[in-house]
Design a protein that fits this description.
Pfam families: 7tm_3 (PF00003), ANF_receptor (PF01094), NCD3G (PF07562). The chain is an alpha/beta fold. It folds into 5 domains: about 210 residues, 3-Layer(aba) Sandwich (Rossmann fold), CATH 3.40.50; about 160 residues, Rossmann fold (3-Layer(aba) Sandwich); about 35 residues, no CATH class; about 50 residues; about 260 residues, Up-down Bundle (Rhopdopsin 7-helix transmembrane proteins). It has 20 helices and 27 strands.
Length: about 800
Amino acid sequence: MDGDFVIGAVFSIHYHMYTEIYNYVTMPDPPKCTGSINARNLRFAYTMIFAIEEINNSTELLPDINLGYQIHDSCAAVPVAVQSAFQLSNGGDNVYYKDNNCSQSGMMAGVVAESGSTPSIAISRVIGSFDIPQVSHIATCACLSDKKQYPNFFRTVPSDAFQAVVLAKLVKHFGWTWIGAICSDSDYGNNGMASFLQATFLYWKYTYRVLRSTAKVIVSFTATGEMKVLFEELATKPSPSRQWIGSEAWITDPNLLRFTFCEGAIGYAIPKSDIPGLRDFMLDLSPTEVASSPVLTEFWEETFKCTLRKELHVCNGSEDLQKVPNDFVQSSPLRMSTLVYKAVYAIAHAIHIVVCTERNFTKNCDKQLMMESKQVLAALKKVNFTHNGYSVSFDANGDTVAVYELVNWQKDESGNIEVLTVGYYDASLPKNKEFHMNRNITWMDGKQEVPKSVCTDSCPAGTHRVLQKGKPICCYDCIPCPEGEISNTTDSLDCFLCPIEFWPNAVKDSCHPKPVEFLSINETLAIILAVFSVGGACLAILTAAVFFHHRTTPIVRANNSELSFLLLFSLTLCFLCSLTFIGAPTEWSCKLRHAAFGITFVLCISCVLGKTIVVLMAFKATLPGSNITKWFGPPQQRLTVMFFTFVQILICTVWLVVRPPFPMKNFSTYKEKIILECALGSAIGFWAVLGYIGLLAVFCFVLAVLARKLPDNFNEAKFITFSMLIFCAVWLTFIPAYVSSPGKFTVAVEIFAILASSFGLIMCLFAPKCFIILCQPEKNTKKYVMNKK
């Protein structure tokens, strides 16, 4: 058909090329096709015509532009394909379907060709010299991705490089390591098998074996015709059952489904799809259109066993393509036809890029533009569109995204073989998610179990393979993974370490997040410590309330009530600061817990030290001529407490500014779990805080010991001595316990030390006083306090 721009095509519409014996006397006739009609490829031709008519009727794609077409028959023969390529390069003639010679057609924009890799290579070498782009719907040879040799070649079918990889993954997925292989002696078969062997070597690194007696799995990279010959030969001779793995060239061919002994065959196929309106278009063949086309006439006569000529069994016009089995009007969903459809639209979009512009939301296309084929070639590299749900784009090699269906030959209720989709592979999905199975597979002989084709059984996950000395590389022992390592696939060559935050499960086939351990508020231990902490704080507050209520009584007044209240306040803070040690450590809690602990305890010890000095000064002041009380009165006591506390604040400030504590995941204490803890940041800062507290406590203890025998019925130095003894004992015991306690128990030890020393102080210093105040008020007199009978 004529057009402003022409899209050429070459399909193998006949099965054979006419063979002529040359006599070297007369000029030989041009190569021509003969034999029966390949209805499948005839469908491809009509799919192209349908797509072009759709485009010509479109207002979005190439508006006001009419595309023409030239469709040639190559009969899968290289000589005919080359002749067709030259005709397309010239503008050509010998065009089917129409009687005109297309001499008035526009320039050749692109070619859809061919139905096989070898003729596609031949065509590409011819038209590539003229920069005419070629888009193939079936040619899958990985060699055609070489842009140095085939710069004009594109395809809407995935390259065999992808198919080889996914077939290798399929073989690996089912654990077959002992397999046979068959391939066509053609570009398709040889290159496909070479890619498959390379992929299998890449995955398993073992020597390939071909058709051994123990190999139950056979991978076949062959064309449909060759598989037909092979299956016919196998059907005549009984042979052991084999699990066939087919390439996309033959695995969905309906003509092979009659070989029921191949039940269970699996392979990757082009995804099923639908082209709206195509079936009706093909069924709408008028008798006039059939009679005017030699090709359609042949097809019609072969299909209905009648003739359109005036002979016997003349076709009467009642023939219906829907009532007879044929590959032209396919009853099952389309596969390859969609690829032809995509190829035509890809070339049309490339033409659109060259000749059309858009201004003010209006598309303008210049049909008079002197377009060159190399412009279409350049535009084709940029094509990226979606039509009827089909996405089309090409990578730098002219290849499209690899999408396959995993199909399986299964018997229906009547015993006939049907092709069912059981999974898919999509290379555009994230890694390790490309392959998916959604249906059970029927294997050879109708079995449901995956057939084994190995030298030795697969090593389960959690083990790795160790080759047996002196035996084939497919023979090995299964050794469990070492501690901390896993293998999550069968037949793993090595085990690998889990990430630092993960640990193997019991069977060592997967890494699970390590449990994170810290002193959680939900734990019994944390709840008990929290109860004691809050209870201690409440006890300190209650004691302060009792003292405040009886603040005018001799016992309260005799023991420096101001320091007593400050001491109770600091004890309350000591009890409460232990709560900051409970829960998941954070940056702020790590800083707060150590600083609060250090400062509150120094405040507490400073108050005790002040009270001890008060006791000593009080009795020194009773000596004749002593005026010592004016040197250590209430102002001096406050300054003493503030000074000692300020020193600790200074230490904590330097620590927090220079190298503060921070939350840390401890991976070294336990291999199988993570300890979430506060790292000290600066160990010097931490031990400086503790050391300063210890220094004050020892100093206070020494002074209390010196004052313990001073005369007084209620000499507070005795209680201070005992409280400091408990305090020092607790913290001296804390040091080795803190260093040796693992995980969350380190925090528990620190909380226990805080609570124990706090309770020791409050019980030793205030319990006796509260007992006198509440239970023996008769003793709360100045005479009793002064030890006067």
